[in-house]
Amino acid sequence: MASQGEAATQYTTDDALTRVGFGRFQALLLVFLGTGSVAEAMETMLLSFVGPSVKAEWGVSAAEEGLVTSVVFVGTVVGSCVGGLGSDRYGRRLGVLVTALVTSISGFLCAFSPNYATLLALRFVVGLGLGASHVLSVWFLEFVPAENRGSWMAGFSCFWSIRTILVALLAWAVMPILGWRWLLALTSSPYFIRLIFSCLIPESPRYLCSRGKINEATLILERIAGMNNRALPPGVLTPNSKRRADNNIDASVTTLLLMPEDGLATDENISSKSHSTNAFQALWSHDLTLSTLLLWLVKFACFFAYYGIILLTSKLSNGKRSCASVGTHLMQPKDSGLYMNVLVTNFAEFPGNLLAALLVDRVGRRISLGGMILLCCAFLAPLAVHLGEGLAITLLFCARACIEGCFVVLIVYSPEIYPTSCRNTGVGIANCIGQVGSIVAPLVTVTLVENCHQKEAVFVIDLLLFLAGVACALFPLETKGREIQ
């Protein structure tokens, strides 16, 4: 009886967040997160416009033009791993601050690059910051109640869509008059805004609980409750989650999902090195190995397809007069065709976000993700043959919507797979594998299309998407509506 009374006076972070709901506190975090998201997208999307200008100014080859894009993603590979391990080791708050600092300074300095080599070096440093940016979405997710976590993360993804449109409009306005250097300088400005406010954000209470800092976590939860005009549950905060069984999921998998510590560093005196080692080893536990490998495949395919679609849009709009088989409808004598088509396909991300928001908390993560991947595959398939420009852009629009929806689901699902103490490590390494796809995509897509192998470029993207769609059916865990601790 004593143990029952003691349990009744305890609550978890999920209990607290469910009680205080999604209110003013989370709304302010969402605005902050959106500013960082805008900056990240602008740094990424401008690569569609900067590459051709760099090629024209410095006379670099087509492969070197693609390298301007790929070197950013090389940096993100390193940044994803380091950012994930660092934020699990030193905290989410510090991770957010460091990524803002690295990306803002290096992004601004890119505008003053005196030569091609310097630009490549600085874009690599930008990639380091971009690679670690997943700590923002994980940090935000750890403040959101479980009931509609997917829908709110889909709302966060709308900022990505807004920023892709902003960079297309900005490039359209700036590039013809001021050139690519001004575009690089202007797109780095949102990061300085994020840098200023990074010092004010709170640490994740889930992270604090996983490190045994219960009093600090309680203070933050009380602050959230006060800002939302709600009250915390009665009792004392505990880091131990409730083991809630799911008839459709193996009990050992459920326990691992719900445990914040998983036997990891709940002792404040444990060394950071030991914590990082245990966090990495946890990814290869019996219950997480399959999910980790499947997530790697899906991330690789989605990153490859996303940037493949963007670059395919750019190349089809520019056209290649050396390809006799390509009709004149794909040849635009002016750059306005490029800006217009990129802008139109960027708008596709809004219906993609909406579709994901409608599905992710209703039909579940796995079905939503697999369905949209296979739909994207189907929309791209007809592009293996040369189509009229209007039809080609329509298909690219639909494919872009589906792949954006996939990323929305992945933003929710990837952190939910892992326990708190190794969450950023798992997501960071998965993003690292995905960024390998980002590195390969420009080299493969640009090279194949410029050498008149459009069919082969589409085939590679579709093959990867099909394999990823199959992988979604093999994930052992559905996390819809579940506590992530």
TrEMBL record:
Keyword Transmembrane: yes
PROSITE patterns with a match to the protein in the record: MFS (PS50850), SUGAR_TRANSPORT_1 (PS00216)
Domain Major facilitator superfamily (MFS) profile: 29-480
UniProt xrefs under InterPro entries: MFS (IPR011701), MFS_dom (IPR020846), MFS_sugar_transport-like (IPR005828), MFS_trans_sf (IPR036259), Sugar_transporter_CS (IPR005829)
GO terms under cellular component: membrane
Membrane topology: Multi-pass membrane protein
Annotated transmembrane regions: 27-47, 67-87, 94-114, 120-141, 153-174, 180-201, 293-312, 338-360, 367-385, 391-413, 425-445, 457-477
Subcellular location: Membrane
Keywords carried by this UniProt record: Membrane, Transmembrane, Transmembrane helix, Transport
Pfam families the record matches: MFS_1 (PF07690), Sugar_tr (PF00083)
Protein name as catalogued: Major facilitator superfamily (MFS) profile domain-containing protein
Lineage of origin: Eukaryota, Viridiplantae, Streptophyta, Embryophyta, Tracheophyta
